[in-house]
Structure formats: C-alpha cells, structure tokens
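debug: dumping io for the single-chain case to check the tokenizer round-trip. Nothing else runs in this session.
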Amino acid sequence: MTTTNPGTVLITGPTGGLGRAAASAMASRPAPERPDLLLVGRAGEALTQVADDAQAAGATVRAIGCDLARLADVRAAAETAKELLDTGAARPLRGLVANAGVMVKDTRSASADGYELTFAVNYLAHAQLIADLLKSFAAPARIVLLGSNTYHANLGRKMIGVQPAQWLDPIELAQPAPADTSPSIKAMGVAYSNSKLAILYYAHELQRQAPAGISVAVFEPGVMPGTGLGRQAGPAAERIGRGIQRLPGIASPARSGPDLASVVLDERWAHLRDGAFVVRDKERDVKPIAHDPERERRLWDVTTELLQTATRADS
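debug: decoded output
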C-alpha cells in the first residue's frame, strides 16, 4: 500500500546502480502513487537519459546538475529545488533519498572544499543538502539515508575484503590522508566504512533536530558486487564479486531499487524513524557501536562548522 500523497521525492546519485533502479521504480508506479522526481546528479548524458526514461514512464521529472564533491554545487542544487517547490513547479517535498556515494582508493584525494573525498561526498554533501532543505519538507515526509553494514564489516563485506570503521574525531575524518601516505585498499575500505558509520550517527541526531512530521531512516541495499563502488577495490576483489553475484539471494540494483522506493513511499514503512535501519525489506537492529549520543552530537557540531567554513570560503 502506497502513501496517498506521494508529492515530490528528491534523489541523489540517480544515474546508475541503485539510484537509477530506485528512480525507475518510483517513476513506474501507477499515477496516483507516483511522485514527482527531482534527480540530483552530475550534469551530462547519464543524468539526461535517466530523466528522459523516468518521464517516458509517466513521471514529472526535473534534473538538477550537481557535483557532490563541491559544496557550492550542493547549495546551488538546494536553491534550485526550493525554487521549484516554492513556485509549484514541483509538488510538496515528501521524500529525500541520500543515495549517492563513492569509494576512493587514494584517501589523499580532497574535495573542492579540501575535505577527504569519501567523507565529503558520502556524508558532508548530503548533510549540506538536507540542512538547506529541512524547512522545505511538507509533513509527513521521509528522509532516507544510504547506509551499509560495512560500518562493522559483516560477513558479506569481509568476503570481499571490506574493512570495518575505525572511528576518529570528525575533524580528523574530514582531513585527507597526509601526502606521504601510500594509497591502499585497506585505507579505502576504512574511509568508506567510517562514512557509513557517520551516516548512522547523523541519522540519529538528525531525527532529534528535525521538525515534527519528518522521519529519518537508513537503508542498506545488501551486498551488491559488480557495481561502480566496488571497482576501486581492484581486479581480485572484482573477481570475488563476480563469483558472489552468482550466489542465490545476493542483492542487485534491480532487486534493491524497488525496496528503496518502497521505504520512501509505502505505508508499510510509515513507522520508521530515529534512524531505523532497513536491510533490503527487513528492519534490523544495528550494533551497539552505531548508537553513541556523544559521538552523534560531536559529529553534528563539527559538521555545522565544516559546512560553514566551506560557505565562508566561497563567499
């Protein structure tokens, strides 16, 4: 059963993999259940194509070009979205899916704002976008963040060599690795897992800070070997991933995309809040490490500082 007023859903990273599958699943719903879509991703042929496909399925779609590695771009995308919402060009904002993500082998890589690239794209860009749009939601509304069991490296992730999170103060997590550091698959995995633990901490604090009527959940699509994220891990991991893909029950964008769309739109999930963790189509408990009010508050405060610093630098 779907919500009777799906309004508009904004989704980042809609040009491939899970994001594209979720956008397609939303666009393909029957008219009364179909939301308007704001597709936020890197401008280019891929974004145009996914927008055209969603329109062909019957959805009202707006594509918003945005490089999530540039916080100025993220702020501009939020302004564009607010203008569409304020003028009625898009229906009221009922959902936001923070889907985009990267795995960066060289953790010395910095975003345009000088922050470690994995942390910047997976976490900071979405924190900026949500902060800018938080007052634009029409309750009831849902914010769904993309999580991963990499934060504790569950069995499926260990099989493909993913490292668990090694939490540091957020100021340190935001800093690129020193110039004399050698790139490594281990460092890449730790940075990715740290970004996913940050998302869990952020989800819990965001629920405390959000206006009434906005619920926050975290969606884990399952192990999806063979997607763009895994290619940075190298040929050996790719070979393992291709083998895992053949196992029964392994996730894929085609399987998990509709599940993500359901979490955003369906009444079945209307109870989710407080950063509830959904793995594909089942609500799961997180490990104790993923609940830490002190870390959550510290992350929120540092995030505010980092975003403000970037804004001042662009002024």
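debug: round-trip ok. The chain is about 45% helix and 15% strand.
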